[in-house]
Amino acid sequence: MSKLNILMIAGTRPNFIKLAPLYHRLKKENDIDIKICHTGQHYDKNMSDVFWEYLELPEPNYALGIGGGTVPEVIGNTTVALANLMQKADPTYDLVIVFGDVNATVSGAITATQLGIPVMHVEAGLRSFDRSMPEEINRVITDHISEYLMVSEYSGLEHLQKEGIEPSKIHFVGNIMIETLINTRSKWESVALPDEVKDFISKPFAVCTFHRPENVDVPSQLEIVARRLLSLSTWMPVVFPVHPRTKARLEKSGLYQLLVENENIKLLPPLGYFEFLSLVSKSAIVITDSGGIQEETAFLGKPCVTIRKNTERPITITEGTNILMDLHNEDFLSFVQTHQDNLKKTDLNPIKFWDNKVSERILDVIKQCRVKK
Predict the structure, then answer these.
(1) Which residues participate in catalysis according to the annotation?
(2) Bridge partners of residue 241, in order along the sequence
(3) Nearest-angstrom CA–CA distance, 151 and 171
(4) Based on CB atoms within 10 Å of each CB, which residue in 14, 116, 235, 311 is the most buried?
(5) Is 350 a member of any domain?
(6) Strands (E), the chain
(7) Closest CA relative to residue 113, chosen from 148, 137, 74
(8) What is the pLDDT of residues 172-197, one digit of tens each?
(9) Do 213 and 168 lie in a common domain?
(10) Cβ burial 151-184 (10 Å sphere, 16+ → b, else e)
(11) Is the dihedral of CA 25, 53, 122, 30 positive or negative?
């Protein structure tokens, strides 16, 4: 019997984290051949290349080098490059696996589907119901053209069923990013943090991250973000790893220097995956607009305040440690403090399938591809 040929496509930091445990699981199978394509959407070293080393992945078989640009430009360029890659493959691919909701995800799904190659979407069914988010459009398109939908939480099952997806395509396997967190725990718990934060982490401190366009690309919104950080710093020290785009916006507005001059705020460049997890695990609370960090804090039992009007990960609120807050909430500091106090009185239970068996469940589904081949 010939091998099952699989192409895994990744383009950003979260993609790499989700890809790793599945890659390692599949490599143990003698009848599966895997190739990795790195589209290059995250092209800062700490945001991209370093993860291959951290997660013990090999160099990608293909590196497309697609950098920045508008969403349509990135999707278009990535789709063209992927089409050239897939059409030249010999033997042809039996399955393409995409992860999450980034431009590389939808580009890979569209290209493979147009070429008649089945697509597996890992982290399917998540919905924010906010079409102003490019990620939401990517999720919907990818789910509706994929053959295998790997769902991470109950809401994903409900959304896909309501959207009329054929039940046989839907598989509840759990959160694969949590599998990576568990598998690498000994490494990120022992990793050395930057010297400049050592004084900060000797007492309760907050970790903040902001990168979403609605928070950082509009000058008036970005000014509010800066005010919220200054307010938070009156309560406890703040460690702020700054996304490259966010830094550029802060510098352009003159707000970066304002934050730098505050002795209770420490601005850092983007941290490696292990360093960031270590920082979060030591923190008292996290303020973010990220998707994945909501899940990491929920698993680690760390209070999280997400500065967004919605979340595609509602289980982090109903069963985790997360809460949503509008950036314009003038009671910001008291809101954050109340959330932390309330969680101290709450007993948290493990979330179903947020474990280190997710890749094993996905492998069981992939074996169905072998039957269909």
Answers:
(1) 211
(2) 268
(3) 6
(4) 14
(5) no
(6) 4-10, 32-38, 62-63, 95-99, 119-124, 148-151, 170-172, 206-209, 238-241, 265-268, 285-288, 304-306, 322-324
(7) 148
(8) 999 999 999 999 999 999 999 999 89
(9) no
(10) bbbbbbbebbeeeebeeebbbbbbbbbbbbbebb
(11) negative
CA 244/CA 251 separation, integer angstroms: 11
User: Worst-scoring range by mean pLDDT, 32-46, 75-89, 150-164?
Assistant: 32-46
What pLDDT sits at residue 47? 43
**Do 289 and 191 sit in the same domain of this protein?**
yes
One-letter amino acid for residue 245 of the chain = R
Report the CATH number at residue 112: 3.40.50.2000
What's the average model confidence in pLDDT over 8-20?
A: 91
Q: Kindly state the tokens that stand for 150.
A: 């790997």
Indicate whether 113 pLDDT > 50. Answer: yes
Of 161, 183, 159, 152, nearest to 298 by C-alpha is 152
| C-alpha dist (Å) from residue 191 to 36, 119, 184, 276 | 27, 36, 11, 10
Average pLDDT over residues 138-142: 98
- Tell me phi and psi for residue 246, to 5 degrees: -65, -40
Lowest mean pLDDT among 38-52, 227-241, 270-284: 38-52
Residues 133 and 156: beta-carbon distance below 8 Å: no
Compute the C-alpha angle 317/307/257, nearest 5°. 145
What domain range is 286 assigned to?
A: 187-344
Question: For the whole prediction, is pTM greater than 0.85?
Answer: yes
Say if residue 44 is exposed, middle or buried (CB neighbours under 10 Å; 0-12, 13-18, 19+): middle
Q: Are the C-beta atoms of residues 229 and 240 closer than 8 Å to each other?
A: yes
Query: Do residues 65 and 155 share a domain?
Result: yes
Residues contacting 29, CB < 8 A, separation 6+: 363
Residues paired with residue 326 on neighbouring β-strands, in sequence order: none
**Which of 227, 352, 232 lies closest to 299, judged by CA?**
352
